[in-house]
UniProtKB/TrEMBL annotation:
GO molecular function, one term: metal ion binding
Protein name: Aldolase
Pfam families, A to Z: HpcH_HpaI
InterPro entries cross-referenced by the UniProt entry: Aldolase/citrate-lyase_domain, HpcH-HpaI_aldolase, Pyrv/PenolPyrv_kinase-like_dom, Pyrv_kinase-like_dom_sf
Domain of life (superkingdom): Bacteria
Annotated spans, Disordered: 1-33
Family affiliation: Belongs to the HpcH/HpaI aldolase family.
Keyword vocabulary terms for this entry: Lyase, Metal-binding
This protein's GO CC annotations: cytoplasm
PANTHER family documented for this protein: 2-KETO-3-DEOXY-L-RHAMNONATE ALDOLASE (PTHR30502), PHOSPHOENOLPYRUVATE CARBOXYLASE FAMILY PROTEIN (PTHR30502:SF0)
Keyword Metal-binding: yes
Domain HpcH/HpaI aldolase/citrate lyase, first and last residues per copy: 57-275
Length: 292
């Protein structure tokens, strides 16, 4: 295992805009030509922020709408997740979604539907900064996810950077390996039990805890408030293992509890989801208009 983040992140560089949004450097225009930046640059900067222990906050998009991605990215999140597990991010929609994120230089990470090599490769080929791989329960599954993010001889990714070659020119297998952020999800008791072995896999850049499935796995009701003591204890166990291994840890708590998890040392926190906004805000506005 590479214990330090420098080794784990393979080529991370110091930021020229310390403490700023990696996608939106201070003093620059938000809308830029593709040739003025690279996905590699934003991947390195996001990893650098995690390495320094900074909490980063992102948006989650399930709708598959490029316009929604543009609107959310205009708010200035540190990253955006395009959801292909419980949403509509797939090979048909990803090019438009990734272009929408690129307008504002927002790092875009795709949650793939499963730990499937071709699906992971497709997301990266289309220009994603990285992937979130769900339901990773042990080191073998983590190693499979990492291998899918890397070209041979170390990995199993097939060469065909359809859009990635445009997003990080000049493209090479080394650039592809350095660009791809690999985050695995810990969502079960088994994953927590195996977490030290999971984070020991070289190439795992972070662990994202799925609080709903983790709660379900121990017979608790799923909730983003994460107020069950046992669920919370499991999450802190994952946090401790990630801290010892030098990789990031994240989750998606209820908005009111985000400062608490940032204080606990979580560096990758989901702040807002498109479905939640699109359902809650109109409901609140209608209630106010109708005097409810």
């Amino acid at each position: 295992m590479v214990g330090s983040a420098t080794g784990r992140y393979n080529g991370g560089v110091a930021s020229r805009h310390a403490g700023s949004n990696p996608g939106h450097p201070q003093g620059t225009e938000r809308t830029v030509a593709m040739s003025d930046w690279s996905v590699l640059e934003t991947s390195r900067e996001l990893r650098r922020r995690w390495d320094s222990g900074q909490a980063t906050f992102g948006a989650w998009v399930a709708s598959g709408s490029p316009h929604v991605v543009e609107l959310l990215c205009a708010a200035g999140p540190d990253w955006i997740v395009l959801d292909g597990q419980h949403g509509y991010a797939d090979a048909a929609t990803l090019p438009g979604l990734l272009r929408a994120a690129a307008i504002s230089r927002t790092p875009a990470i795709v949650r793939v539907a499963s730990n499937d090599g071709p699906a992971i490769g497709t997301a990266l080929d289309l220009g994603a900064n990285g992937v979130i791989v769900p339901m990773v329960d042990d080191a073998e599954q983590a190693a499979r996810a990492v291998a899918a993010c890397r070209y041979g001889p170390a990995g199993t990714r097939s060469f065909g950077p359809t859009r990635a070659a445009l997003a990080s020119p000049p493209f090479s297998t080394a650039v592809g390996d350095d660009t791809a952020i690999c985050i695995v999800m810990a969502e079960t008791v088994r994953a927590v039990e195996n977490i030290e072995a999971i984070v020991a896999v070289d190439g795992v850049h972070g662990v994202f805890i799925g609080p709903l499935d983790l709660a379900i796995s121990i017979g608790r009701p799923p909730t983003f408030t994460i107020d069950d003591p046992e669920v919370r204890a499991y999450m802190l166990t994952v946090r401790d293992a990630c801290r010892a291994a030098g990789c990031a840890v994240g989750t998606f708590p209820a908005t009111a509890h985000i400062p608490d998890w940032a204080a606990e040392g979580f560096e990758f926190l989901g702040l807002v989801a498109d479905g939640e906004i699109l359902s809650r805000v109109p409901r609140e506005m209608l209630a106010a208009a109708r005097g409810a």
